[in-house]
Amino acid sequence: MVEPELFPNQPDPKEHVARHKNEGTKEDAKEMALAGSQLNNVATRLKILEERYGTLRKKSQTTEHNIVEVEKNHYDDLRIINDDIAEIKLKMRDIFEKVSMLSDEIENFASRNELKVIQKYVEYWQPVDFVTRKEVNDFLRKRFHQKDQGKEVHEQHHE
């Protein structure tokens, strides 16, 4: 049975049947046509609502699918970013270690004042004027060779 709240302008079916029980077929035909028209109207509205519901459902499914795809892409992007960050951290740690080693080595360098002192000593000693061992040995050989020859010449003159 149809709920009266759904069709407030319609009479109660029991009253309607009792009142019109003996009426002619013309009125029945009119009422049947009116009822058929109303039924077609309700069916059309129901079909439109079902189509709208189907369209909304398809849009909802498409939206959900797109959200899942976007989440997947964001997850992949975040994973790549995290990998890049880890790699950057390793490189930064390596750079920090190298800078620390350079800093330690720089502490072992001579200071500007120490270099000036060394420069003064070098200028004072003038190492360019020093002779090598070879030069000394060659000089001594020549010198002794000349003395030996001089003695021989001198001994020959005395004899």
What do these coordinates show?
The protein is mostly helical. It has a domain at 113-159. The chain has helices at 13-19, 25-107, 112-125, 133-158. The mean pLDDT is 85.
The assigned structural class equals mainly alpha
* Helix content class: over 70%
Calculate the terminal CA-CA distance, rounded to whole Å. Answer: 170 Å
Element-by-element helix/strand order: HHHH
Largest sheet: none
Summarize the structure.
This protein is an all-alpha fold and 159 residues long.
How do the strands and helices of this protein lay out in sequence?
Elements: H1 13-19, H2 25-107, H3 112-125, H4 133-158
Structural features:
mainly alpha, rod-shaped, 159 residues
